[in-house]
Amino acid sequence: QGQLVESGGGLVQAGDSLRLSCAASERTFSRYVMAWFRQAPGKEREFVAGISGHTYYADSVKGRFTISRDNSKNTLYLQMNSLKPEDTAVYYCAASVRFGATGAGDFGNWGQGTQVTVSS
Q: Are 99 and 33 spatial neighbours (Cβ–Cβ below 8 Å)?
């Protein structure tokens, strides 16, 4: 499935916005279901948003985050608006062959993560 490299994380204040990017080296990027997960300290990795033929979101981010992809650039994005301190985590992108996948076990290829910190 190739290499995934996330970028765009940083330290922001509550209410701010960030856009994460995930660059894929795989030329068949467009064939995969792509998703964003996040993991806060002491917590399990959790699904945030996924995209295949449609987009789907965790309830905690619905209405604030938008996942998109540009298959011509082999790049996945996550636009995060109205950020909250509870959004603080390392964000990972991942690829799957399973349509509608939300479980971490369904994803076989992961990036190294990018840190997002939201201060109150």
A: yes
- Distance of alpha carbon 4 from its chain centroid, rounded? 11
Of 16, 28, 41, give the one whose Cα is nearest residue 95: 28
Q: How far is it, in rounded angstroms, from Cα 92 to Cα 13?
A: 21
pLDDT of residue 44: 96
d(CA 73, CA 71): 5
Provide the 10 A C-beta neighbour count for residue 28: 12
Q: Mean pLDDT per segment of 10 residues, for the chain of length 120 residues?
A: 89 98 88 95 96 94 97 96 98 93 90 96
Rounded to a whole number of angstroms, the CA Rg of the chain reads: 13
pLDDT (0 to 100) of residue 104: 92
